[in-house]
Amino acid sequence: MASQLPDDFKCPISLEIMSDPVILSSGQTFDRVSIQRWLDSGHRTCPVSKLPLPEPPTLIPNHALRSLISNYTIVSLPKPQACPSNPQNLIQTLVSSLSPLDAKLNSLDQLSRMSKRDSGIRRRLTESGAVSAVLDCLNSSESGLQEKALHLLLNLSLDDDNKVGLVAEGVIGKVVSALRCGAGDSRAMAATVLTSLAVVEVNTVTIGSYPDAIPGLLALLCAGNSRERKEAATALFTLCSFPDNRIRAVRSNAVPILIHNANSGLERAVEVLGLLAKCRLAREEIMRFDRFLDILIEVLRNGSSRGVQYALLTMSSLCSYSEKMCLEALNLGVFEICVGLLEDDNEKLRRNAKTLIQVLQGRKRIT
């Protein structure tokens, strides 16, 4: 499987496909196990860039890349043929109104196989008119054609140089339309494509400002199946790294939708709330919901390491802002839970727990 996936999915240290990609302060991404082993050996420089690292080094989960890798492992494409067709001929099949549906589906399959592992082919495809042909397929009422077109767009978006170009060619509008109206796996795939495109900062701004993008993701969070809701939350998390998008999300009614999903067990919703809680407008909205702390405490007690990190982050933001929330957290035993988390193996989790303890201690001294 590793030989069939893009090199960007491989850890620079182990050269294996990453299962838990994390970002160093140098901007480089590694598999958590490999980079932790490097750090535990006493190294304090980035293995790739050789830049010095802060003490203690921070490891930031790369949710966008993790989601892309996950999607690649579940997308099943036909086996490659011994003699692949000429890409230009395949593109011509897509744009021709005379091409039967089966021929278009086969062309998309072959183009997906070609572009999945080779950045050179991805570049050639984007330069040879493939994007406009794929976008035409997204307009199709045939769900199979739409899904395969989205798979190909996801492949083409793997390279940063292509991400901005894809947005310039009008990809966002067509992908958002599939997000809202697609059938089968199209809606989940559309959310994944938005996640991939939003990895580039300028695209984060552009996608967030597109009128239906954030509302479309929130609609999927409301009505989607388990995979669709997870992919929508991942896309929102990536978009809300940009502060203005947090305000857009709150104004699109994100807070009650995310709280409902968090209460239903979707930890990624807690992570998005952790980002939104940095925004005053979101904090004020969250404060209107009774028993929200109970949801976060449940994550602290039974959630994954990543979920606990963001539950702590959200609590710190809320308790720093609200005396009422802080006192409620103290009464519910959050301080004691945080003390126990100081023994956790995860460095970022320990740091977030320590921050919340400091916030709660400050309130205890006042009272």
UniProtKB/TrEMBL annotation:
UniProt keyword annotation of DNA repair present: no
Segments forming domain U-box: 4-79
Enzymatic reactions: S-ubiquitinyl-[E2 ubiquitin-conjugating enzyme]-L-cysteine + [acceptor protein]-L-lysine = [E2 ubiquitin-conjugating enzyme]-L-cysteine + N(6)-ubiquitinyl-[acceptor protein]-L-lysine
InterPro entries on file: ARM-like (IPR011989), ARM-type_fold (IPR016024), ARM_PUB (IPR058678), RING-Ubox_PUB (IPR045210), Ubox_domain (IPR003613), Znf_RING/FYVE/PHD (IPR013083)
Alphabetical GO biological process terms: protein ubiquitination
PROSITE patterns, per database record: U_BOX
UniProt key word rRNA processing: no
GO molecular function, one term: ubiquitin protein ligase activity
Pfam families (alphabetical): ARM_PUB, U-box
Pathway: Protein modification; protein ubiquitination
SUPFAM superfamilies linked: ARM repeat (SSF48371), RING/U-box (SSF57850)
Highest taxon of source: Eukaryota
Gene3D superfamilies on file: Leucine-rich Repeat Variant, Zinc/RING finger domain, C3HC4 (zinc finger)
Enzyme class: transferase
EC number: 2.3.2.27
Keywords: Transferase, Ubl conjugation pathway
Protein name in UniProt: RING-type E3 ubiquitin transferase
Organism annotation: Olea europaea subsp. europaea
